[in-house]
Amino acid sequence: MNGIVLFGDIVRSRRNAAVSTAWLRTLADELTESYPPEARLAPFEFTQGDELQLLLAASADPLDAVMRSWLHPDRLPMRWVVVAGGVDPGSGPATHRTGPAFLRARERISEAAAGRDALLMSSGDVDADRLLDDLAPLLPELLADLTIRQRVIGRLILIDGLKRSEAAERLNVTRATISVAAGRAHLRGIARLSDALRSIFATGQEAAGSR
């Protein structure tokens, strides 16, 4: 069967293993709640306190996990890989599963570490993947520059889908305050880039599946 494999690896996790484990547990719980049951092909699980592994349905949005991890107020720096492709049938958690997409994800996480890229994506289509190799690493570069306050606002707007006026009401500030913060955080550019990555990835999946 086909699915989407995600590996989320904490950067320099060995500096504080307890903190890394706590963060991955928090993130795994949030992602399990945010993705509906039909989008999860296996329970999410992490290995040795430093790498979270997810297996999603081919129709799921993998960037939701990436965005949630980077916009969380308590986040730790992570590198992510997203790979579409074949996965072997099974019933265990993602860390116990295998298949071509898992093997490719392992290759890509090594490439990400070597190239110091925080996001790599592979749809299975050569043309789409060329674009993804150029564009995907730019998204976490934009997200990494956000302050804690900007991440809180970005989360409300980009993940929860609130309007700026609604975010202002939620945080008990003026709409102008939200607009200034959103502009300085380049939230519009982040939204456009993430939407473009979703479109390219989906197009690549469709092209790869038609062959």
Detail the topology: elements first, then pairings:
Blueprint: E1 2-10, H1 17-34, E2 45-47, E3 51-57, H2 63-71, E4 78-86, H3 100-115, E5 119-122, H4 126-135, H5 138-144, H6 148-159, H7 164-171, H8 175-184, H9 187-210
Parallel strand pairs: 4-5
Antiparallel strand pairs: 1-3, 1-4, 2-3
Helix pairs in contact: 2-6, 4-9, 6-8, 7-8
Kindly summarize this structure in a few lines:
This protein has 211 residues and is an alpha+beta fold. It is 54% helix and 15% strand.
Explain what this protein looks like in three dimensions.
The model has no long low-confidence stretch (mean pLDDT 93). This protein is α+β, with helices and mostly antiparallel strands and 211 residues long. The chain has helices at 17-34, 63-71, 100-115, 126-135, 138-144, 148-159, 164-171, 175-184, 187-210; strands spanning 2-10, 45-47, 51-57, 78-86, 119-122. It folds into two domains: 2-125, Reverse transcriptase/Diguanylate cyclase domain (Alpha-Beta Plaits), CATH 3.30.70.270; 148-184. The protein starts with a strand and ends with a helix. It has nine helices and five strands, in the order βαββαβαβαααααα. Helix 7 crosses helix 8. Strands 2-3-1-4-5 form a five-stranded mixed sheet, with helices on both faces. The chain is 54% helix and 15% strand.
Number of DSSP-assigned strands: 5
Radius of gyration: 17 Å
Q: Largest beta sheet, briefly? A: 5 strands, mixed
Helix-strand string? EHEEHEHEHHHHHH
What's the helical proportion of residues?
Answer: 40-55%
The total number of structural domains is 2
Number of helices: 9
CATH class of the largest domain: Alpha Beta
